């Protein structure tokens, strides 16, 4: 930050304000990546706000049985800290959480963490050209804010009449109740998404009876999981290039899959994989029919599992191919009128992507919140990172970034973009950068246009990717390479530039 802020900072600090060049909100994978990369880039005046008492984000919160990654571990680690110690090709939740905590220690960023500090409100001031953040532990001021709160933060519950009358135990998969012993219990799992396919096989052999409520079936493909022997882990540690090569191979496979998913007609090519999995793992034709989707593979997120479909064939497991529509005491009522009596309800119903909590706490120019702005249109961002009326604010894993690849890798590309922007403000006498509305609108028009013939939009399913405005606000329409190239350098020509007040007026151009 410019030298002329030092006296101001001292004055503000005397008032109990905490002043930094950058504030990062969230200490999950993307927040820790931002912290390490900022520090390595020489941008060392920053803190990380975390509402909990431990790092980890979604990997701290989600502790349900079977919880783990759904892409190969080789690509699910920081580029600056490859992990040769993964015990499996698909790492489990405890391993990922331990890896995040080890990274904090190894890169010396523990002192940057502010635990028990929940962001309540973040507002931009044109007059002060900075962000003011009200938290549960005081007020923070910053020139730049990186919102690294992730996608999977707010558990989503279906609206169910009579849920308050349920006499048993109920909880969401993201807030698993480990005090409840499921042995000999009648358990209902609501939903058949990513978490459900991990939970069901783990608890099916424990419970007395398991009822799985399936609103719509989903495509399940093989999960190429296997233990990584200790000698291979040692080899990766001694020969880092070998692990980098494996990462490269996995990345190429994922990029190819993303390319296939870009068009509905090419996504159909994967249909035989899903149908073959059903034929080999579900011998009962009636059950197989209930589990066979009527939409193109890839329209909804692919589910990877070798154990989910066989678990549904167990004698104590019942698949109800209908949504849960009501609750009456300990009785659950399905859409077709079927009634089931249970002791425990597990909601494996995903997360609220349309209205993420952080958007309700970001107050842009004019005083409205980002969620109010998105309510009028749809969740939108420029390169999934910036929005108009919010200068110097950066969303990690914002709207329209999801694809079949490591979200951590994509977040790291965004962080490089953010670092480039902060460096520009440091070197060019700039106080604020704000994406130009015209460029923002044109970009999002291209996003929606090119998503029009993707499998996500035309695959024949009712997907959470599409909001009430008919817009796909979740997925990226182009290749992984294009996203990384777009984020490789900060494109200042698409931004309004506010120079230091003692130098030039607002919106003077700056060379990138």
TrEMBL record:
GO molecular function (one): monooxygenase activity
Stored Pfam families: FMO-like
UniProtKB keywords: FAD, Flavoprotein, Monooxygenase, Oxidoreductase
Keyword Oxidoreductase: yes
EC number: 1.14.13.-
Top-level EC class: oxidoreductase
InterPro entries the UniProt entry points to: FAD-bind_Monooxygenase_sf, FAD/NAD-bd_sf, Flavin_mOase-like
Entry's family note: Belongs to the FAD-binding monooxygenase family.
Name of the protein in question: Flavin-containing monooxygenase
Species this chain originates from: Antrihabitans spumae
